[in-house]
Design goal:
370 residues, alpha+beta, two-stranded antiparallel sheet, elongated
Length: 370
């Protein structure tokens, strides 16, 4: 039956392209929406993920960066440094503000970095300096291109002028970017020299970040210590909570449209072969054989459509960033598993719907030319 289904499916190339193409486009819609949401989540936590820190220490009960404020006395850095298992501690200052160039205003995480820090700085420099000195700023390359900023130009950050000395990659999302200035400049503009926002902690070799975070939480008062993974997860959860309704509705609508198109494609493709099934019955095929043939054809169509739709989605993940868009698509394993499994179920159901008509076919209609 599988061989028969395969031959029947590939017998008419035009019909094959229509059925597989319809399924592929439907699945492309579903996979693309999932990839966009996964990509946005990845972009939002990129700074945390690439900070190089094993543990993030913040003010008590502050568990994320987005729309949050953390303030710690600088003495906390010395206390954390003496916790067993801590190899190094790097303080940073943080605020959400605009990078202003002419009439262009770009929302950004403004990060104040200590001199020669090994943690928390830009991880991918396309041109210029890798760390800002006093009076300097490193901004995202895409933001710079959109605003017409070149190396050596000045931008306004936190109400002061900074010379752009470096462009970073991977530090922009659909909603904001990350800009880096020196901690000294940050302190002077804020008018405070004895507080920090976050501590980025590197653990000693052989130490567990979870165990060291627990020690910091126990031994240092009024702080929250989280591993990098936990801190990133909290950041993603905040974004999800803020956009849950919109994203859920978009995903649901796209998913339902995609499944409806796929179900209709499989259904009409199955009915279009009624004459062929009638001929099989005339030649002595049992209804069970027809059922298996129909099901096999539907599943083959969906598998081919899924592979084609996945290829198109992966192509989009490469092409879209090339055109300078801050939109990043990322296909996740969970998305592939969800879409693939549901697609097979829908394919089976869609193929079963016309089976009653196929089972009731009169073999004589083949010879009557109907």
């Amino acid at each position: 039956m599988i061989r028969l289904a395969f031959r029947n499916l590939f017998q008419n190339k035009v019909r094959l392209v229509i059925s597989v193409g319809g399924v592929a486009l439907a699945l492309l819609l579903i996979l693309s929406l999932d990839a966009i949401f996964t990509g946005v989540e990845r972009q939002v936590t990129a700074y945390i993920e690439y900070s190089g820190a094993d543990i993030w220490v913040s003010q008590a009960d502050v568990r994320n960066m987005h729309m949050a404020s953390s303030s710690l006395p600088d003495s906390v850095a010395r206390k954390v440094k003496f916790v067993p298992g801590v190899a190094s501690v790097s303080p940073i200052l943080y605020l959400t503000n605009n990078v202003v160039a002419g009439d262009e205003r770009n929302l950004a995480y403004i990060i104040g970095l200590p001199e020669n820090t090994e943690l928390g700085g830009p991880w991918d420099i396309s041109s210029g300096r890798s760390l800002p000195a006093e009076g300097e700023a490193i901004i995202n390359r895409g933001v710079a291109e959109k605003s017409g900023i070149a190396l050596g130009d000045e931008v306004e950050i936190l109400g002061d002028e900074f010379k752009v000395t470096g462009f970073s990659e991977g530090t922009a999302s659909l909603v904001n970017s990350v800009a880096f200035i020196s901690m000294k400049d940050f302190e002077e503009m804020r008018g405070s020299y004895d507080t920090i926002s976050f501590l980025l902690v590197k653990v000693s070799d052989g130490e567990s970040p979870e165990a060291v975070a627990a020690r910091i939480q126990t031994q240092v008062r009024d702080v929250t210590a989280q591993t990098r993974n936990d801190f990133a997860a909290q950041e993603r959860q905040v974004i999800k909570d803020m956009s849950t309704d919109v994203i859920t509705i978009m995903n649901l609508i796209g998913f339902l449209i995609g499944l409806a198109v796929m179900a209709l494609t499989v259904y009409t493709s199955t009915l279009s072969r009624r004459r062929e099934y009638g001929m099989l019955k005339a030649l002595g095929a049992r209804n069970t054989d027809l059922y298996l043939t129909v099901l096999a054809q539907a599943i083959l169509s969906v598998i081919l459509g899924f592979l084609f739709g996945l290829a198109l989605t992966l192509l989009l993940t490469i092409v879209i960033p090339i055109f300078g868009s801050n939109l990043v698509l990322e296909v996740s394993r969970i998305s592939l598993l969800k879409v693939g499994s549901v697609s097979l179920v829908i394919a089976a159901i869609s193929a079963m719907l016309p089976i009653r008509q196929i089972a009731g076919l009169d073999p004589a209609m083949v010879f009557r030319g109907r």
